[in-house]
Amino acid sequence: xxxxxxxxxxxxxxxxxxxxxxxxxxxxxxxxxxxxxxxxxxxxxxxxxxxxxxxxxxxxxxxxxxxxxxxxxxxxxxxxxxxxxxxxxxxxxxxxxxxxxxxxxxxxxxxxxxxxxxxxxxxxxxxxxxxxxxxxxxxxxxxxxxxxxxxxxxxxxxxxxxxxxxxxxxxxxxxxxxxxxxxxxxxxxxxxxxxxxxxxxxxxxxxxxxxxxxxxxxxxxxxxxxxxxxxxxxxxxxxxxxxxxxxxxxxxxxxxxxxxxxxxxxxxxxxxxxxxxxxxxxxxxxxxxxxxxxxxxxxxxxxxxxxxxxxxxxxxxxxxxxxxxxxxxxxxxxxxxxxxxxxxxxxxxxxxxxxxxxxxxxxxxxxxxxxxxxxxxxxxxxxxxxxxxxxxxxxxxxxxxxxxxxxxxxxxxxxxxxxxxxxxxxxxxxxxxxxxxxxxxxxxxxxxxxxxxxxxxxxxxxxxxxxxxxxxxxxxxxxxxxxxxxxxxxxxxxxxxxxxxxxxxxxxxxxxxxxxxxxxxxxxxx
Length: 526
Known about the structure:
Layout: H1 9-19, E1 29-38, E2 41-51, E3 56-60, H2 67-75, E4 82-87, E5 90-92, H3 97-102, E6 105-108, H4 120-126, H5 137-150, H6 166-179, E7 184-188, H7 196-211, E8 216-220, H8 224-230, E9 233-238, E10 241-247, H9 253-261, E11 280-290, E12 296-306, E13 310-314, H10 321-329, E14 336-341, E15 344-345, H11 350-355, E16 358-361, H12 365-368, H13 376-380, E17 391-392, E18 396-397, H14 399-412, H15 429-440, E19 447-451, H16 459-474, E20 478-482, H17 486-492, E21 495-500, E22 503-509, H18 515-522
Parallel strand pairs: 3-8, 3-9, 6-7, 7-8, 13-20, 13-21, 16-19, 19-20
Antiparallel strand pairs: 1-2, 1-4, 4-5, 9-10, 11-12, 11-14, 14-15, 17-18, 21-22
Helix pairs in contact: 6-7, 9-18, 15-16
C-alpha cells in the first residue's frame, strides 16, 4: 500500500470528525438489564445504567460489586448472559472491543497500554485498527498537529512515551480514544497512578469536554471526592446488583455510601466462640509509608489486635489498606512508626515471621502468595522447606517429605487437586485459597493477617474459608482482617476500624457498630 493510501473508512470518519470539531453530540448509551454468570456464580444480576450525552457518569461500588464486569460486557470483552446495550435508540451487538469502537465506544484502562519506547505519534498511528504497510510520517505528523490543535491539551507527537509524566500518559490514553473517534469513553480508575494535581487536571479536562458536548464519560472510581467534584450522575452497584442512582448534586456522600454497603448490618458469624481477648499480639504505632509514586499513603496509622479477636478494617478501596498489608507482609518499607508482635519489634523478615508465628493470606493469592508453575506440595511447603524434616544438611530439600506433608494438608483442608504434584496454577480460585490457608494455618499461629480472603470465590468456598479464619480466632490467634466487603467484616470481626485517606478514622465493637455511621466515615464525612 502506498503512502498516499487512504485510511480505513471508520478511522477516517472518526479522525475527520475530531478535526471538524465534532458537530454531532455523542449518542445516548444504555445498558439494559445486563446479567453475567461465571459457572454457578452470578456476578451481574439484571443491572441497568443510562449514560446521558455530554455527561460524566460515575460507577461506584465495593470490590466485587460488578463494575468491571458491566463495562466489559458493554465493551464486548464478555458476552452478557442477558440484557442488551443500546447506542442512541438502537440495540447493538458488540462481540468484541473492535465492535465497540465501530459504535464510538472506547475504554481507557487502569494500567497504561502505551509502548514506552515509541513516540506519541507512533503510539497513536499504530493504535488504528488498520495501518498502511508503508507510513508517510510527514503526512501523519501534519495530521496529528492539526488534531492536537483541536484538543484542549496537546502532547508533542515526537516525544517518547517513556519521557512523559504519569499525568501526561493518562492524557495520551484519552487522546488516543479521541483520535480513534470515540464519543463515549469509559475510564477505569483513571487516577489510580496519578498525583492529586495530575488527577484534578485530567478529570477537569474530561469534564469540560463532556460539558461542551464533545464526548460522554463513564468512570469507574472508588473516590467520593472525584464523584462529587467531577461527575454529573452516579450509579451504584452492590454485590452484582443495581443499588441506586441519581444526580450527584442531589445526593450526599453518606447516601452514596449507604447504597454501597446497605442500610442494615449483616449478621455475625454463628461460629464465634467466647474468648478473653486481653493480650496484645499486634501493635501498630504511628505508621507512615509512601505509595509507588513516593506520595504519602499511610498517615499515622495506630491500632492493636489482641489474642482471640478479629479486628476488621473496613473502607473504600484505595484508602491505604493495600499498602498497610504490604508493610505488615514486608513488601513495602515504612517511612516512620513501628510494628510489634507480642511486644517484640517486627520487621517482617523470614526469621521474624517464623519465630513470632505470623501468617498471611493476601488478596489474589495465586499472584501474591504462590508460584503458579510449581506444584501444590511445593507451594504448601514454602514456610518450612528449609527446616527439618523437609531439608537435609540445610540445603537439600526432601521432596518426599514435602509431598507427604502436602497429602495430609490436602485431605484436612479438602483441596480439590489431582495430586500434590499438580501445578497450583491449574487449581480453581477456592482451592488455591485453601492451599494457602493450609500452609499458613499449620503449626503455631499467633497472628493471622488476611486481605479480601473470599474475593471472587463461590459460596461454598466462602463459607469454608470464613470458618477456617474464625477457627484460628477461636483457637487464640489474633486476626487482622482487611476487607472491602463490609458484609464480610461484620460477619467475622469483633471490632471494626474504618480507614479513610490513609488513616484510621473510626472504631467500634462489631456488635454495636452502626452501619450508617461506618458508611459516613468510609465516605470521608464522619
